[in-house]
């Protein structure tokens, strides 16, 4: 499987990934190499990774607790302090071995420590492989508000090794699959049809490759999200608000990112029917696909009120306007759509009555 070249680095797959990092490490005299893990990737992935990488016995391990709740500036401060205590300098390398929390936070830590050290991302979840692998977005949450602090900065390379997916449960795999379904909705109706019929994650290497390729094509045309790259946010404006609401309420079970975005795509599919001409048949198709794969969530009026209040913190907002990505049809997005407030409740009603 050929590597995918972005504007400044390459995404390498499986054995080619190990070949690429070993060649890179032989050619680059890093002063120190650190590997950032959480307790899960330390247990399930670190051993295999080190067995395939040259001179890995010299690497120093940094560990943080798993989970979105730890994607905070406080975690960054602890890691900056630990890097300093271990004499990391500007010629050090940080390898981020984990899911989206590790790659987002680790990339931010590397990008800001001593004004920037090199980093390599090794995503170990399906979500991180198809989403965080391309685009250079790094950052942390501000309380329950997703990705409010960060920078766009590119890694030296990204290594996608599908063997790590064997460490995941079905819920985590489904979470990542939601982002892949999004790629079909915003860019390729044929890919959407292929994904719809895939219920057992068969041929996952080829599907991951297609999703990474789709995202890379978008980012290459708009690296700083001024226009086209905004389409990658379909389902995320309301989806992130839902995710944040469940994250900050200890009495509620936290939703995984893909589960929240699946809800967001149904809600924003409804808005698309109302505002940008998405055919009723396409909306029903979107609703059926996501409700068949992801558990339905109940929302009270109080829940909806609080979720809608979180929209004002969305990163895509400009000049006080909340900007949405909607669909004209499956595979054809429309950016920067303003939503009449009354339609938000109608969208939740559509979801609740489904």
TrEMBL record:
<dbReference type="InterPro" id="IPR056179">
    <property type="entry name" value="DHQS_C"/>
</dbReference>
<dbReference type="Pfam" id="PF01761">
    <property type="entry name" value="DHQ_synthase"/>
</dbReference>
<comment type="function">
    <text>Catalyzes the conversion of 3-deoxy-D-arabino-heptulosonate 7-phosphate (DAHP) to dehydroquinate (DHQ).</text>
</comment>
<keyword id="KW-0862">Zinc</keyword>
<dbReference type="InterPro" id="IPR030960">
    <property type="entry name" value="DHQS/DOIS_N"/>
</dbReference>
<dbReference type="GO" id="GO:0003856">
    <property type="term" value="F:3-dehydroquinate synthase activity"/>
</dbReference>
<keyword id="KW-0520">NAD</keyword>
<protein>
    <recommendedName>
        <fullName>3-dehydroquinate synthase</fullName>
        <ecNumber>4.2.3.4</ecNumber>
    </recommendedName>
</protein>
<keyword id="KW-0456">Lyase</keyword>
<keyword id="KW-0479">Metal-binding</keyword>
<keyword id="KW-0170">Cobalt</keyword>
<dbReference type="InterPro" id="IPR050071">
    <property type="entry name" value="Dehydroquinate_synthase"/>
</dbReference>
<feature type="domain" description="3-dehydroquinate synthase C-terminal">
    <location>
        <begin position="176"/>
        <end position="317"/>
    </location>
</feature>
<feature type="domain" description="3-dehydroquinate synthase N-terminal">
    <location>
        <begin position="62"/>
        <end position="174"/>
    </location>
</feature>
<dbReference type="InterPro" id="IPR030963">
    <property type="entry name" value="DHQ_synth_fam"/>
</dbReference>
<keyword id="KW-0547">Nucleotide-binding</keyword>
<dbReference type="InterPro" id="IPR016037">
    <property type="entry name" value="DHQ_synth_AroB"/>
</dbReference>
<dbReference type="Pfam" id="PF24621">
    <property type="entry name" value="DHQS_C"/>
</dbReference>
